[in-house]
Write a structure and sequence with these properties.
alpha/beta; Spore Coat Polysaccharide Biosynthesis Protein SpsA, Chain A; 7-stranded mixed sheet; 5-stranded mixed sheet; 7 helices; about 25% strand
Length: about 300
Amino acid sequence: MGTALVIMAAGMGSRFGGGTKQFEPVGPSGEIIMEYSIFDAIEIGFTKIVFVIRHDIEEAFKSVVGSRIERVCQKKGVEVCYAFQELDCLPEGFSVPEGRTKPWGTGQAVIAASPFIKESFVVINADDYYGKTAFSQLHKFLNENDKPFAFCMPAFVLKNTLSDNGPVTRGVCRVSADGYLKDICETHDVEKITEGGRVKAVANGREIDINSHVSMNMWGLTPEFLETLKSGFVEFLQLDVADNPMKSEYLLPIIIAKYLAQGKITVRVLETEDKWFGITHREDKATVEEGIRGLIARGEYSENLYDGTA
């Protein structure tokens, strides 16, 4: 049935300093980060792109990137869909707690995309660059996989994912000797610190092994998981939101860690040497621009990403 790419682009980026960081141009011809992910996915053989956005950014999104991608996808025979993640998109019988403005999280983003997903799919953040190898490995795994609850994720090295400009959140992983995810710990406020010429990763005063495997919220999943996500969301609203109505979030790393612990799923960890980069803080944009220029210099992309395709 092919492979779909679900791009979570509904967030505004609270630490970015205002504006919508997903729209920031980083390529020499005005390309934004997600366009490089889409380019890689189409080149590898993905057959559908699902954008998860909000209604209030729909017009801007389509004018900045949507119409451009639609033209390319039409020529390539790739379907483009738009799903909408909204705070009030809740199961019957539930309502938004009074005063809540915080989104429900990445788990709800995938649920929002579910009407368009019938095939295995990869989920990514809109503001992260993952590299060609990660897409290729996930696509291969999903096309060869015949188990409904066998998933996969690319493993990045923590030291290669830290920002010079402030703290980040990372899913720190434990991996078995045979290459499967054992558990994942969503770790907030991870900072890059240099002491005596040595680079360290520190979160809330605790040092973390800088060579740890981390998840960058890029997952290879199956359509059978969607019903599990939906039923889990109901449980989350009943329990977690009751305890913390303003800030609790339904997050993919936490969801996956829960089902791993229960033995309901497996997650194959796929090694990648690709360099990750992304925009968390406004100052990260210059680092991303430099990274893109390096990839262009090595022949990974053209100066105009769509040369010969648009």
